[in-house]
Write a structure and sequence with these properties.
Shape: elongated
Strand content: under 5%
Number of helices: 11
Largest sheet: none
Distance between the termini: 44 Å
Structural class: mainly alpha
Helix content: over 70%
Number of strands: 0
Length: 196
């Protein structure tokens, strides 16, 4: 892994040597520093990318993630909100903002942001993780009648490509029954259709 980061860093630096304002290379440098645990450096790189490309929600969400890791949650929230102004359905920003709201003791508001994605089946893996964690921490069933919402049920039953070894995914796959949910069988599908 360290070799991959080194190769990625060399590539990004080569691009930046030729084009100092290449937002993708600036973002890559931010991601590399984040993976190394150098959160303040990651923030600096992501801030540069945002200055170059203000209209890309992913750059604002990457900055917010680095700000969160650096302990700057107020600035992180502002970055997530900027990403959501650009794209209200940007999953990473929705999930990140919900996580920050939860940390601030506003778990109900956090879940309310995620509900439309869960009910419509548009939940990304990260949205499903945050939603299920919030429901579990609240000691609540994840859906009336014991069914996981459509997006979560599909995700819990079949995780995203290449992610099956993730501890967070094992928690969902192994713990969904313990949270009162079950994969979307015929009864759950009928209930989910009726809820729409």
């Amino acid at each position: 892994r360290a070799g991959n980061l080194g190769a990625a860093e060399r590539m990004a630096r080569e691009v930046l040597a030729q084009r100092k304002r290449e937002a993708a290379a600036l973002t890559l440098m931010g991601m590399i520093e984040f993976d190394r645990g150098h959160y303040d450096r990651a923030v600096a790189w992501h801030e540069q990318a945002v200055r170059v490309e203000r209209r890309v929600p992913a750059y604002h969400a990457n900055l917010a993630q680095a700000l969160t890791a650096a302990g700057k949650s107020t600035k992180a929230m502002a970055s997530y909100e900027r990403a959501l102004k650009l794209d209200p359905d940007f999953a990473e920003a929705v999930a990140g903002r919900s996580e920050l709201l939860e940390r601030r003791g506003r778990a109900k508001r956090a879940r309310a942001l995620l509900e439309p994605f869960m009910k419509s089946g548009r939940a990304s893996p990260r949205i499903a993780l945050v939603y299920l964690r919030l429901a579990h921490r609240a000691g609540e069933d994840v859906h009336p009648g014991g069914c996981l919402p459509a997006g979560a049920a599909a995700f819990a039953a079949k995780p995203a490509d290449g992610a099956t070894g993730s501890p967070r995914l094992r928690w969902i796959r192994g713990g969904r029954r313990g949270m009162g949910g079950r994969a979307a069988g015929p009864a759950c599908r009928a209930q989910q259709q009726a809820a729409r």
